[in-house]
């Protein structure tokens, strides 16, 4: 079977597609074997490849690809939740990817069954980006109906799902994006948009209950004047300044760390079924085009998600 590997960190050309032995289920207890149909690119893919987290890359030998839509092809006898032929939606942990391959082993807790009639390529954009938005807004910030939410980076993979999630939970949403993406964010449901090229959201006259900093380019000191006293500031990237802010304001400032979280995945899938959330696909690449896919996603100018099509899946 084909799999994407990288033996050293560097530019996208370090990525290679190799043929490896088929995965054996022998000795596996709570894992299922899945033929991957679609995955997506997340920022962590090119950050690992580029060497941003060299320590983890060396220590955990991290494979790339975390989002999975696939078909169950083998199930050990102790697993009753899944059967051969089921279509699943899954998320691998950030320290142990591997979805950018033709087959993958998934723990039963890392996936849910989905309806095969759904748009499977769209679903592949949900797991990592969607669960990150869900943990941030629903769990960390305890989002309630009627609250005001600002999403810095509304056109990104995480941000475009966060806008729709916040709207689905009854929030009033302000999205920060470049001017060319304002309309896109409004079409996703944002009530207000701020063009970061012409306006500084930190100087807004409005106050927010939740500020979700997807692009991580601000600090608590900067947003304090626009955050309600009981509000939350959630960041997607850890830094010394964020750690300092978390220590100073432990109940207000949070870092989100995504992990395979069935409850979040189940709720996101429900919202997709109810047509309250959809994935905007920027571009689709095949597994053979993985180098181009990394180059494209790493530009950080994409809107929504970049999808990877595997095993000749139909689109
Ligand atoms: N901690 C975790 O567990 C976790 C999980 C998932 C993701 N993340 C992090 O979350 C971040 C976002 O990931 P992603 O996959 O959603 O990224 P992405 O889709 O690659 O982000 C690209 C988008 O960011 C927008 N953007 C770039 N600079 C901006 C700025 N200054 N202000 C507002 N928008 C800006 C771009 O729009 P324009 O062209 O309009 O600027 C583009 O639409 C990454 O840093 C990633 O590492 C963390």
Automatic annotation (TrEMBL):
Residues 10-308 form the Enoyl reductase (ER) domain. It comes from the Bacteria. The lineage of its organism: Bacteria, Pseudomonadati, Bacteroidota, Flavobacteriia, Flavobacteriales. It comes from Apibacter adventoris. One of its GO terms (molecular function) is oxidoreductase activity. This is Enoyl reductase (ER) domain-containing protein. SUPFAM superfamilies: GroES-like (SSF50129), NAD(P)-binding Rossmann-fold domains (SSF51735). InterPro entries: ADH-like_N, Chloroplast_QOR, ER, GroES-like_sf, NAD(P)-bd_dom_sf.
């Amino acid at each position: 079977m084909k799999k994407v590997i990288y033996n050293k960190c560097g530019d996208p050309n370090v990525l290679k597609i190799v043929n490896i032995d088929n995965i054996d289920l022998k000795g596996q207890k709570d894992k299922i074997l899945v033929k991957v149909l679609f995955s997506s690119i997340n920022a962590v893919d090119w950050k690992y490849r580029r060497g941003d987290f060299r320590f983890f890359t060396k220590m955990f030998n991290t494979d790339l690809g975390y989002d999975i839509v696939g078909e169950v092809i083998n199930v050990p006898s102790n697993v009753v939740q899944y059967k051969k032929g089921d279509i699943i939606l899954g998320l691998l942990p950030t320290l142990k990817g591997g979805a950018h391959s033709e087959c993958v082993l998934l723990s039963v807790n890392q996936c849910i069954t989905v309806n095969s009639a759904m748009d499977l390529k769209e679903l592949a954009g949900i797991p990592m980006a969607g669960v990150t938005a869900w943990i941030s807004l629903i769990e960390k910030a305890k989002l309630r109906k009627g609250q005001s939410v600002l999403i810095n980076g509304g056109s990104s993979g995480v941000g475009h799902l966060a806008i729709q999630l916040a709207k689905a939970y009854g929030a009033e949403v302000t999205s920060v994006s470049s001017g060319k993406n304002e309309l896109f964010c409004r079409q996703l449901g944002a009530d207000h948009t701020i063009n970061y090229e012409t306006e500084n959201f930190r100087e807004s006259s409005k106050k927010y209950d939740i500020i979700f900093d997807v692009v991580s380019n601000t600090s608590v000191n900067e947003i304090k004047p626009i955050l309600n006293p009981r509000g939350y500031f959630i960041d997607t990237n850890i830094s010394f300044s964020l750690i300092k802010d978390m220590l100073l304001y432990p109940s207000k400032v949070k870092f989100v760390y995504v992990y395979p979280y069935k409850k979040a995945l189940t709720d996101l899938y429900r919202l997709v079924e109810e047509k309250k959330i959809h994935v905007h696909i920027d571009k689709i690449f095949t597994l053979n085009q993985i180098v181009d896919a990394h180059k494209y996603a790493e530009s950080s100018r994409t809107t929504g998600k970049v999808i990877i099509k595997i095993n000749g899946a139909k689109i």
